[in-house]
What does this fold into?
Amino acid sequence: MNGRALGKRPLPGGERIAVVYIQGIITTQTISGGPFGGSTAGIRGVVDALRRVEEDPAIKAVVLRLDSPGGSAAASQEVAAQVERVKKAGKKVVVSMGDVAASGAYWIAAGADRIVADPATVTGSIGVLIETIQVTGLYGKIGVNKEVVKSGPFKDMGSESRPMTAEERTILQKMVDDIYDQFVDRVAQGRNMRREQVLVLADGRVFTGRQAKSAGLVDELGDFRDAVREAGRLAGIKGEPEVTDLGPTNFWDFLTRNMTGRTLYPADMLPAWLLCSPLTQR
It folds into this structure.
């Protein structure tokens, strides 16, 4: 996930709107893909930028520009928690959805004061998964025999070298169910919906922006500029709001954005352990 951070000093000038970008896989890790594979940055830059929004008196609202298929549940929760702190500080939060704002990205978006999506945005994917790989057949063919010495029966749970036991599957299912309940509660609270309403939509499916608006997951159809205007309106800023656009964090991000119009993110590089059912782009 690529987060662009504000500087440490208060911004000069009058009332303004900040823009914070959340792009790529949402994770606490930093994964570098080099000049051609793009990069996926951890959430630290995003959280720091939102903290700056919270503390700077010149910033009256923030537009969160989301272009992410999701990622880690815990990382999404950390960003969502900082969004709540921004709101408690009296700042308005508007989400602008790009190509995709699904799963963990929607976890973040759900708490915004307003969500604006393009009609063809891919969003939703409210659900959780844990994915493991089991390659005992391959190991047998190539003559690999893996032996494990462990302190307890579940220490190597999820191992690729043996089938999952029924007990392990039960443990993992309970983890999935617990995080899923947290996700549903987040959406219900953030969107002011009954839990029963959310459950109808929370089966992992994705929606277009237009479908999401009809379902109550999105407030308005529009582009980035519409989201900026909405943020200015909610913040009570008269006229065209002054916008602080936070620039690329590194050279490769700058290069790939200018070459392709977007940041490349290597979804295939992220471990599938405990993801909020991301819609992986390939």
In short: The mean pLDDT is 82.
